[in-house]
Amino acid sequence: MKATTATRLVAMGFCAALVAGGGMARAGDPALVPADLQQRAQSIFGVLPKDAASESNPITAPKLELGRMLYYDTRLSINQELSCNTCHVLSKYGVDNEPTSPGHEGKRGNRNSPTVYNAAFHVAQFWDGRAPDVEEQAKGPVLNPVEMGMPDAAYVVRVLKTVPGYRPLFEAAFPGEADPITYDHVAMAIGAFERRLVTPSRFDEYLAGNASALTLSEQRGLATFIETGCPACHLGATVGGQMYQKLGLVKPYPTEDVGRAAVTKNDADKFFFKVPSLRNVEKTGPYFHDGRVTTLDQAVALMAQHQLGKNLTDAQVKSIATFLRSLTGLLPIDYIREPKLPPSSPDTPKPATKG
Fold this sequence. Notes:
The chain contains 13 helices and two strands; from the N terminus they run ααααααααααβαβαα.
């Protein structure tokens, strides 16, 4: 919570500076591009690293190879039909574009599946922040009874140990281990793979100093985005993902989901959710934790109302949405290419059937 508190203070400081500062386009006037826009953007968003390095889980080539395979392996689900890639489709910007995702019995969860791209940079994982990092997050869906439905970690390990081709891959990824095939190592391999799911865009070229990387309309949209106050929450290199915020901060949002309070058991955290990253937001709808908002323009307008108490004009909404589309990055096609998985053996458990 220390990092979250610090981020909130930074956001509060930004809001104060925005009110006091001059030179910005007047609210409601997306026709202007402030002379110091690029400098302001650089101070708000910073630089997107090439990967989300971790001291506790160093990225290695063998770990990446194993993690990529496990990410695509449907044998990590009880019916052997679901993988991480089922709900977080790498070729579709890390989402399935569903309001909520169906699990092994067709039942749907109660929250939208967020993108895995750039997620390793976030303050925590899941909408409610119940996992501190992508390694811990990777353990959740596999054992979730609604999602992939595996009964326990021991069963997952049993399945993997019956696939002969996995043994040398785990040994290479975790050298010197007497028993390298463990559930923790499954999560570490997947986590390492996800730590390189990074999608720089033209916006990063702009932040690096190339003003022509964004069109004039996109620069106007960036100015409107800043002037409206959006970076109070959507700040940092991932344009979000760095703090928790109350959904309906100014105007209540219609939801029964208490968000982070379900994790902390603290009423003060009711309706707080992790602020999503806006990178690739053009591609990752439907929006919000409940997936009920279908268009980017609608999401922009509603956030302004519920979080900032502002009713934006159609021109302002379209201007901000124009800027947000510049956050769509190039997918790392070679890196996410679906691998050939090691075959099962006669000892590998058969898929469980429904009912």
